[in-house]
Amino acid sequence: MRVKGKVALVTGGGSGLGEAMSVRLAQEGATVVVSDINESSAQRVAADIGGDAVAMHQDVTDEARWTQILADIVERFGRLDILVNNAGIALVGTVEDTTLADWQLTNSINLDAVFVGTREAIKVMKSGSGSIINISSIEGIIGEQKVAAYNASKGGVRNFTKSAALHCCAEGYSIRVNSVHPGFIETPMVAGAVGSMSEADGDAFTTRIVGNIPMGRMGEPMDIANGVLFLASDESKYMTGSELVIDGGYIAR
Fold it and tell me: Is residue 134 a contact partner of residue 163, using CB atoms and an 8 Å limit?
C-alpha cells in the first residue's frame, strides 16, 4: 500500500498508459480520479477499479475545466496528493509536411495542458504536499523525423517540469515535480500512429524501432505505471526536477 490514503488524478486515464497508471495507483491504496475526454472510457476504468475510484470528463485543453475538476476533487475528497499529466496525442508528420493546425493541436494537448494542470495543481497542493508527474517521452530527449510536433511538445514538457520543480523548491512548497520518459510501449497511441502510415512505412518503422531497442521488444503499459507509482510514493521523496527514462535501453546507445 505504497500510496495508501493519497488522492490521485490521472488525465487521459481511459486507455493505454493512463489506464495502467490508474489501476496501479489504486492497487497500492490511492483513491483515483480517472479523467478523459472520452467519458465512457474513464467510467469503464473507474468501474473496473472499483472502490472509491471515480470518472470525470475532462478536455485538458479547457482551462476552466481544470479549475472546476480540481475544486470538485477537493470538495469530494478533501485533498489532491498526486497529479499525473498523462493525456496526449501523437500525429505523424515531418517538419515539411506537418500543418500548423496539427502542430498547434499537438502542443495544446501535450504541452499547454501540462502547464495549466501543473499550475492549478500547485495552487491546490501548496498548503500541504504533493507529487506532480508529467508524462514526457524519450522523444522529448531525442529526435524522430516523423513526429516533429510530438518531439517539440514532449521536449517542452521535459524542461517545463524542471522549471516548475525549481519554483516549488524556491517557494518552500512540499511539492515534487518530475517527468517520465517512456520509450516505445504497446499502446493504442503507438498503434494509431503506425496505422496512420502506409503499410510499407508502418512495417519499416516498427522493424526499425524494435531493432533499435536493446531489450528487443516494446514495453508494456504497466512498465510505465510502475515508474509513476514510484514517483507518486514517498520512496522518491528526494527526487524533483528529475527524468525517469523507461525505454528498454533505447537511448542508451
Answer: no
